[in-house]
Amino acid sequence: MIDTRQSARRDAGSSESSERTASANETMTELVSGIVGDVQDLIKQQLALFKRELQEDIRKTKEGMLSLVIGGAVLAVGGMLLCLMLVHLLHWAWPALPLWNCFAIVGGVFALVGGLLACAGYRQLKSNNPLPDETVAALKENVQWIANPK
Question: I need a labelling partner for 122 at 20 to 30 A (CA). Which of 7, 40, 84, 111 fits?
């Protein structure tokens, strides 16, 4: 009879310890799945932020380009009219100078100035980075953290 009671107690104790182990495993599984879910949410949010920043940069670029194109067209028409005026002014000031020389002088000056402005614009665009730097840095940090948890 004593053996039966002791074996019943052992059986009850082992079932309690297996229940504790099972609940500990479930708790650990829940924790890990929660962390994985949070990491997935974080990456989704950062990708959404990246997409939004990129769309904002593209929108600003479109607006700037539209103004630049319209302004450039109006400037080109005005510039051509001013060039014709300068050619005829030069020919009027120095009548001995043939008209074609006046066109060459004015055209050469404008070509030189235009080339210098184009070089300055190229340097400015070359230094521009259209990527959203903050989001890229945050994504790199998260990937590094996931790859090398401390």
Answer: 84
Are the beta carbons of 90 and 102 closer than 8 angstroms? yes
With tokens 């989001």, the residue in question is 135
Token digits for 100? 């074609």
Instruction: Give the Cα separation of 38 and 142 in Å (integer).
Output: 12
DSSP H helical ranges for the chain: 2-93, 99-126, 133-147
For residue 21, give Cα distances in angstroms to 18, 28, 114, 145. 5, 10, 79, 30
Distance CA 7, CA 15 (A): 12
Q: One-letter amino acid identity for 108?
A: G
Q: Which domain holds residue 40?
A: 2-147
CA distance 111 to 114: 5
CB < 8 Å & 24+ apart, contacts of 77-82: 79/110
Token digits of residue 140: 């790199």
For 68-112, write each residue's pLDDT tens digit.
Answer: 999 999 999 998 999 999 999 999 999 999 999 999 999 999 899
Q: How many domains does the chain have?
A: 1
